[in-house]
Amino acid sequence: MSRQARILLVDDRAENLVALEAILSPLNQILVPVRSGQEAVEAVLADEYAVVLLDIMMPGMDGFETAAQIKRHARSRDVPIIFLTAGSPQPEQAFRGYAAGAVDYLAKPFDPWVLKAKVEVFVDLYLKAARADDRARHPLLDQLGAVEETLALLRKLPAVLRDADAAAAAAELAGRVGRLRDALDSFGG
Predict the structure, then answer these.
(1) Which strands sit side by side in the sheet containing 30-34, from one edge to the other?
(2) How confident is the model at residue 85 (pLDDT cuts 50, 70, 90)?
(3) Sign of CA dihedral 20, 21, 25, 31
(4) For 93-117, what is the mean pLDDT?
């Protein structure tokens, strides 16, 4: 099963969330729409995200304050934030966005292909890091793969194919290796 990344979509307007979902759905990742800064902070504290798309102009907690809250917590400090704004693109606003921890800043209307490509880069980075973490947590997986390959070769040897006891022992070993693989896979998530 292929791992999926979570992408947090933050905008107070439902129609903007629908548009973002339409743009990003071809990436086949988990899209999590929320309608306020407070919901965004709660979401990043509850789950891991590959990237956050954050509207700046929202009632209550605006995007800048939301980004500051997200970056304040160790769990969410490193999540990339792309600011999206319908406001007039002013250099000082972009600077404020970068100062708040954003990795990018896009003015609406933006090119959907550009947004999708930018998000895809962060999703790819996130998934590669997650795979590296999985391998680091489970160094036995590479060794188990080598054992499985050796076992497959053993079961094809003519001597094993001709000897019922050897074939039964190889089958028993294959069952044990399979159970070990299942246990390691379930442990890794």
Answers:
(1) 30-34, 6-10, 51-55, 81-85, 104-107
(2) confident
(3) positive
(4) 89
Instruction: Say if residue 188's pLDDT is above 60.
Output: no
Question: Rounded to an integer, what distance in angstroms lies between the CA atom of residue 50 and that of residue 44?
Answer: 10
The pLDDT value recorded for residue 150 is 83
3-state DSSP call for residue 26?
helix
Q: Give CATH for domain 6-136.
A: 3.40.50.2300
Query: Whole-angstrom Cα distance, residue 24 to residue 30?
Result: 10
* Stated pTM of the model: 0.71
Hey, where are the domains in the chain? Answer: 6-136, 138-188
The C-alpha atoms of residue 171 and residue 148 are separated, in whole angstroms, by 12
In this structure, the strands spanning 51-55 and 30-34 are unpaired
Longest pairwise C-alpha distance within the chain: 79
